[in-house]
Amino acid sequence: MQVTREKPPRVGCRPIRETDIGPLIELLIEGFPARTAANWALAMQRLAQREAPAPYPRFGYLLEVDDAPVGVILLIFSTQRDERGLHVRCNISSWYVKYLYRGYASLLSKAAIRHKEVTYTNISAVAETWPIIEAQGFTRYTSGQIAAFPALSPWAANSCVRQFQAAEDYGPTLSKEERNLLTAHLNYGCLAYVVMENGKANPFVFLPRRINLLPRRINRGIVPALQLVYCRDVRDFVRLAGPIGRALARRGMLLVVLDAPGRLPGLVGKYFPDRGHRRYFKGTEPPRIGDLTYSELVLFP
Q1: Fewer CB near the terminus (10 Å): N or C of the chain?
Q2: Which domains does the chain carry?
Q3: Coil, strand or helix at 300
Q4: Count of CB atoms within 10 A of residue 207's CB?
Q5: Over the stretch 119-149, which tens digit does the pLDDT of each residue have?
Q6: Is the full-model pTM beyond 0.85?
């Protein structure tokens, strides 16, 4: 009697194409049920419309078994310029594989972090994933967050706070790259300000969000706040917290949350280590604390 062996499944990992978006949204809803189909549709639309540096994928990678999508990892590549020069950064987000196919999950992670010249970030790592991420060579780069009340900080001499306007001239100390960054993040629903201090422009970007300052079981701890998404240096925010805080208070925003290496003297607020999430990176260029631009926090509602 001849024994017929079952044909092994065809397993593949490839870049996501725009034609994959419909089935991909169904997969993302299964993996992340807290977000709706409309949330994911907007996220994919934003990825489709923004420029991704070549030769990196625009959306990320899809894991397939017999041509059916069973896993996904979304990647947000961006080109960054700072005092160290020009380099590519990638925010890794929304990694999910169906339970029956978890044995193939390493194909996604290997594809995602294969570019040695790129600095990878994972900014929403929850506690149960920390050992896995660290085993992949990622290093923690923040210690926690501060929930600050900047309006209670003293005034900064010779400073003037302006809401950023793309058509306004802020002088040569606001670079073209920073102007583009502020404009892009305004379109993503952020607030952008430029603080002029002794003729020098200091840019800041904030994202409206809601946070829980109390244990998760206490829902009444959820309050409106702003997340600091961009500044050149967190010390700039500490120095200019007073005028920034008063400008934000006039819009009814009293609380600002920012990543921090620890407590920051001179800033009125409370330091929270970890808060259930950690920020990690892998690569040769450690991210600057205070820079969450072009990340899932901003692009994915």
Answers
A1: N
A2: 11-117 (3.40.630.30), 144-273 (3.40.630)
A3: coil
A4: 20
A5: 999 998 888 888 989 999 999 998 889 999 9
A6: yes
